[in-house]
Amino acid sequence: MQGLIHLYFGDGKGKTTAAVGLSVRAAGAGKRVLFAQFLKDGSSSELNVLRALQNVEVACCTQNFGFFKAMDGQTKAAAQKAYSALLEDVMRKSADGVDLFVLDEAVAACNHGLIEEATLIDFLRGRPKALEVVLTGRDPSQHLLDAADYVTEMRKRKHPFERGIAARRGIEF
User: Fold this and answer.
1) Residue 63 burial by CB count (10 A; 0-12/13-18/19+): exposed, middle or buried?
2) Which residues sit opposite 57 in a β-bridge?
3) 93 in helix, strand or coil?
4) Backbone angles phi, psi at 127, to 5 degrees
5) Max CA-CA distance within the chain?
6) Residue 20, CB half-sphere, CA atoms under 13 Å: how many?
7) CA 76 to CA 81: how far, in whole Å?
8) What is the pLDDT along the chain (173 residues), one digit of tens a residue?
């Protein structure tokens, strides 16, 4: 089977949710899933379910660097080092019999210079033939758009945050 590349992007809710849904579907079909999360600290509720599934491995950086906009130079450097190491680790693991490889928020990590887009593109070009890959995040580059076989844009029309309603555990995270 030929593995394809999925890109879920946009300013709307649902990018990670779509990636999680595909992960559950793949695991339910007996496929091995590697779910890597960038720019999050590993405490999102969906990870609890993914970790409980037999065929799913979750990889994330447990260090919380905060929102990118609030990072100072030293924190950005530490985040870049941590996320680059995470990317290298999960790329290596993905070659070991993984069927579905999710890189949640990798697009945003690229945009902020926390992982190298060239490294990611090289990986996508040289990945095992049968490996299915999912990328999520906002504002993908043209290189990432061109590399993808599926491109799905989630567009925000309305969001409760605009009315002052904060993110709710189990719904937004």
Assistant:
1) exposed
2) 34
3) helix
4) -65, 160
5) 46
6) 18
7) 9
8) 899 999 999 999 999 999 999 999 999 999 999 999 999 988 899 999 999 999 999 999 988 898 999 999 999 999 999 999 999 999 999 999 999 999 999 999 999 999 999 999 999 999 999 999 999 999 999 999 999 999 999 999 999 888 999 988 888 88
